[in-house]
């Protein structure tokens, strides 16, 4: 079952990569990268159970945090063009 | 396991080819993030979870943001240029030399490799009774090589400060500019 799950994850990775490559909009690509990060998390979790080391689940959770924070940073960039400095301009 | 690693390697190659072909630099930055995540997955499958985590945090997180920061200062599109032969030849030759260099390395997971016989047995046997930390990697990094790790932290901090100053002056420049406008 874990092997089937891993195969499904790799197939989904191919699809996400295709979406990131084709685009066409910026948000398609950001979503594809975010989804790819999620697939990596799932891959690590499934690989951990497959090789009998469920401790990797903790690692996968930390990857989720990195993925989430990274997506937020990229979205801020796509929206404002920088990370921190134009808050006042954006509010006006 | 090997089929999964093979598939991930194929994905990695596909990603890198797409990055090289893309003219939209924002998309290229996104795809380098995907390449880093794939490399991290491969490292995890090879049991190097700490290296994998560094790759994911730095490659997919920080460096993507740095790429985007650089893009916001330049253009979003790559300039149209003819494909040049000489750079490709140099890259292929360098890559071939690197691959040739790996031939002398012991096979992955080889228990007879030198690295498993030099210091590792002593460390595995003595770490626990010497400093009472069950995780040997943590004990080596934070205790036996504590000054080394401290130096690395200082280097990384210095590099971070340097990049922050280069990219935006930590907000100092803008504040000065505002002050001059007001006065």
Provide an overview of this structure.
- The complex is a heterodimer of chains A (92) and B (183).
- Chain A is mainly alpha-helical and 92 residues long.
- Chain A has one domain (2-91): Helix Hairpins (Orthogonal Bundle).
- Helices cover 83% and strands 0% of the residues of chain A.
- Chain A has four helices and no strands.
- Chain A has helices at 2-22, 26-50, 56-80, 87-91.
- Chain B is 76% helix and 0% strand.
- The longest helix of chain B is centred in the middle third of the chain and has 25 residues, at 49-73.
- Chain B is an all-alpha fold and 183 residues long.
- The mean pLDDT of chain B is 82.
- Chain B contains eight helices and no strands.
- Chain B has a domain at 1-80: Up-down Bundle (Four Helix Bundle (Hemerythrin (Met), subunit A)).
- Chains A and B meet through helix 1, helix 2 and helix 3 of A and helix 1, helix 2 and helix 3 of B.
- Would you tell me which CATH topology of one domain in chain B applies? Four Helix Bundle (Hemerythrin (Met), subunit A)
Distance between the termini of chain A: 54 Å
How many helices of chain A does DSSP assign?
Answer: 4
User: How much helical structure, as a percent, in the residues of chain A?
Assistant: over 70%
Please give the number of β-strands of chain B. Answer: 0
Estimate what percentage of residues of chain B fall within beta strands: under 5%
Binned, the helix content of chain B reads: over 70%
Order of helices and strands of chain A: HHHH
- Strand pairing plus helix content of chain B: what structural class? mainly alpha
CATH fold title of chain A: Helix Hairpins
């Amino acid at each position: 079952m874990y092997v089937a799950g891993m195969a499904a994850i790799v197939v989904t990775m191919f699809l996400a990569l295709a979406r990131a490559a084709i685009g066409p909009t910026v948000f398609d690509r950001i979503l594809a990268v975010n989804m790819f990060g999620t697939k990596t998390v799932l891959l690590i979790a499934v690989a951990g159970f497959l090789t009998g080391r469920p401790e990797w689940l903790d690692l996968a959770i930390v990857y989720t945090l990195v993925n989430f924070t990274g997506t937020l940073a990229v979205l801020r960039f796509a929206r404002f063009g920088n990370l921190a400095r134009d808050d006042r301009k954006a509010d006006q | 396991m090997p089929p999964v690693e093979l598939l991930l390697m194929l994905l990695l190659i596909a990603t890198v080819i797409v990055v090289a072909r893309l003219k939209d630099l924002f998309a290229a930055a996104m795809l380098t993030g995907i390449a880093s995540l794939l490399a991290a997955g491969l490292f995890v499958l090879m049991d190097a979870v700490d290296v994998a985590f560094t790759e994911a945090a730095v490659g997919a997180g920080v460096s993507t943001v740095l790429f985007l920061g650089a893009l916001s200062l330049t253009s979003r599109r790559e300039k149209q240029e003819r494909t040049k032969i000489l750079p490709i030849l140099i890259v292929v030759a360098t890559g071939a030399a690197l691959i040739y260099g790996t031939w002398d390395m012991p096979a992955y997971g080889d228990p007879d490799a030198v690295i498993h016989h030099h210091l590792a047995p002593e460390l595995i046997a003595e770490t626990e009774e010497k400093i009472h930390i069950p995780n040997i990697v943590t004990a080596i990094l934070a205790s036996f090589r504590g000054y080394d790790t401290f130096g690395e932290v200082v280097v990384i901090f210095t590099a971070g400060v340097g990049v922050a100053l280069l990219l935006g002056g930590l907000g100092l420049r803008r504040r000065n500019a505002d002050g001059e406008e007001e006065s």
